[in-house]
Amino acid sequence: MLRFHGDAEIAPGLVDLAVNVRQETPPSWLTGPIAASLAHLARYPDPAEATAAIAARHGRPPSEVLLTAGAAQAFTLLGPALRPRRPVVVHPQFTEPEAALRTAGHDVTRAVLSEAHGFVLKNLEISPEADLLVIGNPTNPTSVLHPAEDLAALTRDGRVTVVDEAFADTVPGEPESLAGRRDLPGLLVIRSLTKTWGLAGLRIGYVLGPAELIERLREHAPLWSVSTPALAAAIACASPRAVDMEREIATRLAADRAHLVAALERAGVAVAGRPASSFVLIKVPGGESVRAALRERGFAVRRGETFPGLGPDWLRIAVRDTATSDAFVAVLSDVLGGSTC
Ligand SMILES: Cc1ncc(COP(=O)(O)O)c(C=O)c1O
């Protein structure tokens, strides 16, 4: 079940609370360059300009950036390029990194964060022999934001530490991001332009890290894997204007999330940890039948049991506008009231 994702939950007519991609149409300063790039499709894509733009956005040289066809493609490069002997994945988290490592023939050890501690890094034991460590921040599906210093403490010589920051731009100002950190040994940061900018169908993400590691990943990346329209999007999203707008979107999102969490808590629903991203994780008794009842009533939510460390009583809910959240919590309360009678 590692290859199950939220898009499998959605169906025509259902309100999509299962996929954590912002649903608003991207702004015209973004769709314009994407559309204009279609005039140049006869040429093979040249990533130089977009690589330089992303590098400047994070204060790094271009040699420390590899553009990929979404963050998902970056995960597939880790095994072949790094050939780890002891890869460890911190769960619960997005399952593709582990799936990709297994596909590449690696045995993966899981380090599972505990519900009792709110899925934070407290008491996390990582074997000193782990030569590849993968962790998400903020983490899908728990929405937990780990402190940058706790993540920095996991890095060491002889280990590649991969921080999946696909959702980093959902946190205003990105205080815990390691994207600009060049002092930590073996640190790779993976980013995505999918979530905030509503570009899941375009496939654009990138990896940041020491030039030597980036070069190893590049050697294993498929030729021309990032298309010309995706490169145009990367350039547009790296501009100071885009970064400002990202912050505004994240700030509005935080208010919408607070509204959702308050409504869930008023309804007596347990919310995991201190959510910091564009989704929240809840625990409800009889999760499987609750999810089915929600579907009957028009809402698709993401099941929890395909995430190592979670079970069927966990459901992940995307943060949407307050009216959608209110409508959802009203239906959920009804369903839970009905299921306990
Ligand atoms: C935590 C996390 N990382 C990475 C991805 C993949 O992102 P992309 O669309 O850039 O491949 C996802 C997609 O759901 C995700 O949840």
TrEMBL record:
Keyword Transferase present in the record's keywords: the answer is: yes
Q: List the taxonomic lineage.
A: Bacteria, Bacillati, Actinomycetota, Actinomycetes, Micromonosporales
Q: Which domain of life is it from?
A: Bacteria
Q: Which residues form the Aminotransferase class I/classII large domain?
A: 23-330
**Record-listed E.C. numbers:** 2.6.1.-
Look at the named UniProt entry and state the broad enzyme category this protein falls under.
transferase
Q: Which Gene3D superfamilies match?
A: Aspartate Aminotransferase, domain 1 (3.90.1150.10), Type I PLP-dependent aspartate aminotransferase-like (Major domain) (3.40.640.10)
Identify this protein by name: Aminotransferase
Protein's UniProt keywords contain Transferase: yes
User: Which range is the signal sequence, renumbered to this chain?
Assistant: none
Family indicated by similarity: Belongs to the class-I pyridoxal-phosphate-dependent aminotransferase family.
